[in-house]
Amino acid sequence: MSRIVVLRKGPAEPLGDHVLALRDLGHDVHLLAGAATAVATEPHEVDGVTVQTAPVRPWLGPGSNIARSPRWTRPFGYRLLVRARTREAAARARVAEARFRRDVALVRTGSVPATARLRLLLARAHRRWVAERAEDTREAYALRRGRQRAADKAGRRWWRLTSRRHAWAHLDPALLDPEIHLGPLLDELDADAIHAEGAVMMSVAVRAAARRDRPVAVVWDRTTDRKPRKPWVAEARKLLVAEYRGRVDQTVKRPTRHDLATAYAAVGLASAPSDHLEGTP
């Protein structure tokens, strides 16, 4: 019986129909899942599949992307957009309250006391300061999300032209975080084939297969691949795929039972009789 490790970035459960289909084909299926919020668990069996989870903490990503932090590009901005909006609303309310107290004092006494004038002056100055900080925050977040400036486009083009190998690690080092946390666990499993879900896990599987002293098949499941919204992450994903897709043995776009059986038969792992009936837990 051949051992297939399903490599997943995300929660382990639900297992998915393709994992159960691999089990029904007679393979020893081991699901290794990693996510930022996952809790490390020992291998345990779920519906005939050995499941193991490990936390993938953002270790390389935050330190290298500090230039994209709002505090770095705009030091006087707020850390969060919601905080900027809340502070703006509070500053406007403070001005309205100071203006109301001034008007009340004017009606009662016929003149505006110095304390009321000073309170309104300070409230307006505070509102202006908060508005400046909120505008800095919005500009910083727009810069952080977009990265559409000419200098950013030139930088991405420069990495693509000059750094043929591992250029994606310079653009988005967080792509190496799954390798740091899941790579050692993947080496211990001694798999005959690795079923990688997504482009990032495909790169982890290819590197793990290269470390083995015997052939290990890599099947790339592209069902969960989505284009990232951030432009530098999308560019890094392109470079990652361009570097590793040529070392993948089989690619699956629809993980049906027939497509999985065909893909694994092509890499020399034919299906075997299973104790589980198809479609039953």
In spatial order, strands of the major sheet run: 3-4-2-1-5-6-7
What order do the helices and strands follow?
Answer: EHEEEHHHHHHHEHEHEH
| Helix content percent band | 40-55%
What class would the helix/strand composition place it in? alpha/beta
Number of strands: 7
Give the N-to-C terminal Cα separation.
20 Å
From the alpha carbons, calculate the radius of gyration and give it in angstroms: 28 Å
Broad shape: elongated
Mean of residue pLDDT values: 81
What fraction strand?
A: 5-15%
**Annotation field: number of helices:** 11
Largest sheet: 7 strands, mixed
Are there runs of 5+ residues with pLDDT below 50, and where?
Answer: 62-69, 277-281
Structure write-up:
α4 runs antiparallel to α5 (about 115-145), α8 (about 175-190) crosses α9 and α9 (about 200-210) packs parallel to α10. The chain has 11 helices and 7 strands. It has about 280 residues and is of the alpha/beta class. It has a 7-stranded mixed β-sheet with strand order 3-4-2-1-5-6-7, with helices on both faces. It has helices spanning about 15-25, 60-65, 70-75, 80-110, 115-145, 150-160, 165-170, 175-190, 200-210, 230-245, 255-265, and strands at about 5-10, 30-35, 45, 50-55, 195, 215-220, 250.
Brief descriptors of the model:
single chain; 281 residues; alpha/beta; 7-stranded mixed β-sheet; 7 strands; elongated; disordered C terminus
